[in-house]
Design goal:
Helix content is 90%, strand content 0%. With 112 residues, it is an all-alpha fold. The chain has two domains: 1-50; 55-112, no CATH class. α2 runs antiparallel to α3. The longest helix is centred in the first third of the chain and has 49 residues, at 2-50. The protein is elongated, with a radius of gyration of 33 Å.
Length: 112
């Protein structure tokens, strides 16, 4: 009986060693993958840092202006629609707030 127990213990020990080796290999593979990702990120970051400011900022600036124009158009349309209903006048709080936002958007547009 003790011989059987000892064999079972040895078998369990071997099984655990095998699982540990498998796990170690998986961790090693994942570390390698992470290192590859880190290297790729660093490469992309260096590429981005080397870009001249003029070329990379022209696209987003145009996009920001278009976005600001869209926002301004929506505000104007909303205000005009509310006024056309006849329910609101220029003295109503919502119209005053929309006017304030429109002025702010226009000032922001001029600044940029």
């Amino acid at each position: 009986m003790t011989r059987l127990k000892k064999q079972q213990q040895e078998l369990e020990t071997m099984r655990l060693r095998y699982l540990a080796a498998e796990e170690k290999e998986a961790v090693k593979s994942e570390k390698h993958e992470l290192e590859d990702i880190r290297n790729e990120l660093n490469r992309l970051k260096q590429q981005e840092d080397k870009k001249p400011w003029g070329s990379s900022s022209a696209g987003p600036a145009v996009s920001l202006n278009e976005s600001a124009d869209d926002h301004l158009s929506r505000l104007l349309e909303e205000r005009d629609t509310l006024l056309r209903t006849g329910v609101y006048t220029h003295e109503d709080r919502i119209i005053s707030e929309l006017n304030r936002q429109i002025q702010e958007a226009m000032a922001h547009r001029v600044d940029h």
